[in-house]
Amino acid sequence: MRYALYCFCSQLVFVNWLQKHLLPCPFKYLTGIDCPGCGFQRSVIMLLQGNLKQSLHFYPAAIPLMILMLIHFLDSQYHFDKKGWIKTPLAIITGSIIAVSYVLKMTH
User: Fold this and answer.
1) Which of 18, 31, 59, 108 makes the best surface tag, with the fewest CB within 10 Å?
2) CA 101-47-91 angle, 5° bins
């Protein structure tokens, strides 16, 4: 029980620290326009807090993008996707989600 409470409290401290140390977007700073990656950090914070709906609202491609990064990392270590049968379709799907959500964000 103590360990679970410790993990929960340390996660809260980590999430609070993340919220106070978000990286600024240089593209938005220079142009005033959101970039295709704007919202990713807040989306990850929402996921860490267990709020899937808010996470999808901030950045719909966050989960597929993190899965893609994990698969890429594992493949670089274990070389299980030599022909790209997993990474290529996932990259296309993730890129499509990013493009569609960015267009929708810019038009609304």
Assistant:
1) 108
2) 45
Closest CA to 47 of 33, 59, 37: 59
pTM value? 0.84
- Percentages helix, strand, coil for the chain (3-state, rounded to 5) are 75, 0, 25
* Residue at 16 is within a domain: no
19 lies in a domain? no
DSSP 3-state of 81: coil
Q: Is residue 101 part of a domain?
A: yes
Say if residues 25 and 35 touch (Cβ distance below 8 Å). yes
Quick one: DSSP state of residue 37? Answer: T
Contact between residue 75 and residue 88 where contact means Cβ atoms under 8 Å apart: no
Higher pLDDT: 35 or 5? It is 35
3 found inside a domain? no
